[in-house]
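user: Please review this fold.
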Amino acid sequence: MGMFIATFGLFFAMYARPWRATKPSPKAHVGIGAFILVRSELYHRAGGHEPIRMRPDDDMKLAHHLKKNGGRQDIVFGRDMLSVEWYSRLGEAVRGLEKNSFSGLNYSLALLVAATVVQLILNVWPFVALLVTSGLLLALNTAIVALILVLIAAMCVQSGIGPPWYALAFPFGVILFLYILWRSSLKAVIRGGIQWRDTFYSLAELRANKL
């Protein structure tokens, strides 16, 4: 589980770019559902959760919406302050991410295909290339793999996810992440919506509220 969290953490960091959260632009925002502190005056002035209803990714969208309404944001690395368990087992993570993975792609199958191709080229191919290339190409891919492993190992240590050797599982984490994306997206398309706990949310309603 920790190995997958390391991969997911890197992807989320590259997607949300939390180091830009203090910038005034609404495009620079980050939201972690369990740890959001909001001034009540700003929250009510912005309309609360009503503008982001039908958004499974409500934490990120709330941050974006509040900044659009004049809010400022900062982010604290609170490892030594408080914590909450995300998922205890890998199967729980796969099922839990089912509700919001497709929303991160704006419910677009074209974006799903594009994201898959990009992830395979950038994050899986360099590892495969170590086995099937030689010369300059091998040297280049070795450098890319080394950089990826160092980044994830450093993140594992800094965040307390686990030991640095978790980084070795990165390419398998990428494949699992893509599986989750495809599973979430295809189930939503086939069902015509998302089933979360005891409630069904139609794809038409979900797509209607794009922020």
DSSP finds eight helices and two strands in the chain. The CA atoms of residues 4 and 176 lie 8 Å apart. The longest strand covers residues 193-196. The mean pLDDT is 89.
